[in-house]
Please model this.
Amino acid sequence: MIKLKEDKNTPEIANQLKNALLELENTIESLDRMDVGINISTRPSAFNIVLTADFANDEALENYRVHPEHVKVLDYLKLVIAKAHVVDYII
Model:
């Protein structure tokens, strides 16, 4: 879950980030599937974006983490993020 910094352009930033994340599915082979949703709640405690990503195994996840296209998204995210919560788990 990603909470963006408060900004008048937050909805636009959220959409840009969503599109950039979804594009990773086309460029990173180890990423099996990604879903990205933009929050519709107006509650102050709500985060702006949630994403789930599926990988075949831990090695695939690690390949995704260090992939140059993912790193580009992370570099952009560092500019606009207020906080995030991350959970990696095995089904």
Q: What stands out?
A: The mean pLDDT is 95.
